[in-house]
Design brief:
The structure is a single chain. This protein is an alpha/beta fold. The chain folds into two domains: about 5-175, 3-Layer(aba) Sandwich (Carbamate kinase); about 255-405, VC0802-like (2-Layer Sandwich). About 35% of the residues lie in helices and about 30% in strands. It has eleven helices and 18 strands. The protein has helices spanning about 15-30, 45-55, 65-85, 120-125, 150-165, 195-205, 215-220, 275-285, 315-330, 360-370, 390-405; strands at about 5-10, 35-40, 90-95, 100-105, 110-115, 130-135, 135-140, 145, 170-175, 195, 225-230, 240, 255-270, 290-300, 300-315, 335-350, 375-380, 380-390. An eight-stranded mixed beta sheet has the order 3-6-2-1-9-11-12-10, with helices on both faces. It has a six-stranded antiparallel beta sheet with strand order 14-15-13-16-18-17. The longest helix has 25 residues, at about 65-85. It is globular. It starts with a strand and ends in a 5-residue tail after the last helix. It is an enzyme of class 2 (transferase). Keywords: Amino-acid biosynthesis, ATP-binding, Diaminopimelate biosynthesis, Kinase, Lysine biosynthesis, Nucleotide-binding, Repeat, Transferase. Belongs to the aspartokinase family. It holds the Pfam family ACT_9.
Length: about 400
């Protein structure tokens, strides 16, 4: 007997026919005593459709009501998939995030899972049901529904797997594993058999959309292996786990990531005195706006003034304009320039520790194809460059060629 948590993304459940294929596959592979928990996203582009509906309402801050709206997408998916299993003769039940015991904290649209109390899930499994849980959502301490941000269904699945001590968490998606680069940008990308949690977390944090960073953190916390694989084939995918044992461990760089949801904000001509940076970033933090790359430089012509340049997610740009605009109205800031035509490209690999020249190779690859680097940031296992969004494809291809050549999987 084994306990499996399986997550299916929006493309996997985009139609009722695909749901039937999923249900048939699970029943075909299921052994008699296996316990199955399924976490699903909203069907296809339905979340985008709901956002478009909300966009028809005059622009106000709709945090709570937006979450009430968006959470319905997953509820459609879970109910239809439960009906599908029942039509095939298998007992199944659908549960919302709240019913499954997913407890969150934080703010609407960006909530974090604090705790999982899966008693109802265990109870339904003991009754012989396949349990289908709405991803992307949980409940706040005041009882309101809250959504978990992009990729939140992954976090739901991994957290449930950890809290329930599942044997494995399987993330089914429209790609067949984790690649050395996004195949949409790089035709020579190589599928990895395995990758460490730390490397996957860094790739996810830097924009690799295959996994949400929080879900990888939860996998690390619960020591749950995560198997990323395709909904549409039976092929093995990529295992995300604490340590790698395969020969690819010798690869210096494990992956190239891109984040095209990046905006640059330049706060110019601020007084070069203690406390100014704190004022700017505290105001942003109070509105739950995450800041990524940061550069502060004194102007050569005037040591009394400095420029603060940083990046945020472009979905936070409207809120950032409002926050910084208030500081401008109070005459605490003067000139602010916003640019949402930015992207970040990054290399990640534990192998770069103690390997000189890795950053230089990356910069050289970008330079040879005419990609200008605007900001650089580093960590122990990554190097990131801010570039113009139009240059993403050639940047990814150039970096990948530098470290992998043109070999394919």
């Amino acid at each position: 007997m084994a306990l499996y948590v399986k997550k299916f993304g929006g493309s996997s459940v985009a139609t009722t026919e695909r749901m039937k294929n999923i249900a048939s596959r699970i029943l075909r592979e299921k052994h008699d005593n296996d316990k199955i928990v399924i976490v699903v996203s909203a069907m296809g582009d339905s979340t985008d459709d709901l956002l478009a509906l909300a966009g028809q309402v005059p622009s106000l801050r709709h945090g709570r009501e937006m979450d009430m709206l968006l959470s319905t997408g997953e509820q459609v998916s879970i109910s239809l998939l439960a009906m599908t299993f029942k039509s095939l003769g298998a007992p199944a039940i659908s549960l919302t995030g709240m019913q499954a015991g997913v407890f969150c904290s934080g703010t609407h649209g960006k909530a974090l899972i604090d705790d999982i109390k899966p008693e109802r899930v265990f109870s339904e499994l003991e009754k012989g049901n396949i349990v289908i849980v709405a991803g992307f959502q949980g409940v706040l301490p005041n009882g309101d529904v809250a959504t978990l941000g992009r990729g939140g269904s992954d976090a739901t699945a991994v957290a449930l797997a950890g809290a329930m001590h599942a044997d494995v968490c399987e993330i089914f998606t429209d790609v067949d594993g984790v690649y050395s680069a996004d195949p949409r940008y790089c035709p020579h990308a190589v599928k990895m058999q395995e990758i460490t949690n730390i490397e996957m977390l860094e790739l996810a944090r830097l924009g690799a959309g295959i996994m949400q960073p929080r879900s990888v953190e939860l996998g690390m916390h619960y020591h749950i292996p995560i198997h990323v694989r395709s909904t549409f084939t039976d092929d093995e995918g990529t295992i995300i786990q604490e340590e790698c044992v395969m020969e690819r461990k010798r690869q210096i760089i494990k992956g190239v990531a891109q984040d095209t949801h990046t905006a640059r904000i330049s706060v110019l001509n601020v007084k070069n005195v203690p406390g100014v940076a704190h004022m700017v970033f505290e105001a942003l933090a109070d509105e739950h706006i995450d800041v990524d790359m940061i550069v502060q430089s004194v102007q050569r012509s005037n040591d009394d003034l400095t420029d603060i340049i940083f990046t945020i997610t472009d979905t936070d740009l409207e809120d950032a304009r409002r926050v910084l605009g208030e500081l401008q109205s109070q005459e605490k800031l003067t000139t602010i320039i916003y640019d949402d035509n930015m992207a970040k490209v990054s290399i990640v690999g534990a192998g770069m520790l103690g390997t000189p020249g890795v950053a230089a190779r990356m910069f050289g690859a970008l330079g040879r194809v005419g990609v200008n680097i605007l900001i650089v940031s580093t960590s122990e296992i990554s190097v990131s460059c801010l570039i113009n969004r139009d240059d993403v494809a050639k940047a990814i291809q150039a970096i990948h060629k530098e470290f992998w050549g043109n070999k394919t999987a």
